[in-house]
Amino acid sequence: MKETKDKRLFPLIHSQSKPSNGHRYPRRGEVSVSMLRFSGLIALILVLHYTDAFFPLVPGDHVIPHHMLRVAHTNKFVAFSAGLTQIATLHASHNDTVPYDRIFLNMGGGYNNTNGIFTSPRTGTYVFMYYALAQQNKQLQLDLYRNDDYIVGSYAHVTSDYGSVSNSVILGLDEKDTVHIKAHTDDYLYGQPDEIYTSFTGFLLVPDEGRTQHGSHGQGSLG
User: Fold this and answer.
1) Rounded distance, CA 207 to CA 100, Å?
2) Any stretches that span the bilayer, and where are they (predicted)?
3) Dihedrals φ, ψ of 122, to 5°?
4) Is 208 strand, coil or helix?
5) Which residues pair with 43 in a beta bridge?
6) Quick one: DSSP state of residue 134?
7) Exposed e or buried b for every residue in 15-43, given b needs 16+ CB within 10 A?
């Protein structure tokens, strides 16, 4: 009785006819579900196909979700990381720069480990981070500069122990701008070939949006 009632309420789903060869045709309800799944698949394909319309490919991008998960323009990406492998004594009066001598990565070739200076190979917005460990019972005061402009600083002094400093900043750079870490006073850094505690890292965050576009200029000093 229940089956008869269901057929009367849902005739499109339950009505079917048999072809002459003995096989049944698909129920109309089954066809509707299949068409819905097929339509969803087509929609997904269209979204993937037109991904670039919403997320256009720009130089400097790493991975763009598109067609074949295309990897693009990694040769234009900029990133570096270097560490200090020796004990160093720096003097502000000598305009000393921290000599991060061991290069871990130098994509774009912007970092020079002979003078510790990063020179921007292309205009863009960059992230910079530095960390340093002082010699035991010595002070440490380091400043990050863009060209000749002071940007951020750090200070540490721990009696009878090792003090450490760190800082980070996001900066707009034009091509050929420089970034480096300088001594603020007489500074004493600890480092060994197998004990690297002092490092300097930077990478391109947004291409083509540099210092001129941002209109920002570093200024100020710790005195």
Assistant:
1) 25
2) 31-50
3) -155, 155
4) coil
5) none
6) B
7) eeeeeeeeeeeeeeeeeeeeeeeeeeeee
Give the count of beta carbons closer than 10 Å to the beta carbon of residue 77.
18
Residue in the block written with tokens 């008869």: 4
pLDDT tens per residue across span 21-63? 555 554 555 445 555 556 666 665 555 555 544 445 555 554 4
Reported in sequence order, the residue ranges of the chain that DSSP labels E, i.e. its strands, are: 79-83, 88-91, 102-107, 111-112, 117-119, 124-133, 139-146, 149-157, 164-173, 178-183, 186-189, 199-207
Residue type at 60 in one-letter notation? G
**9 exposed, middle or buried (CB, 10 Å; 0-12, 13-18, 19+)?**
exposed
Tell me the two tokens of residue 37: 């799944």
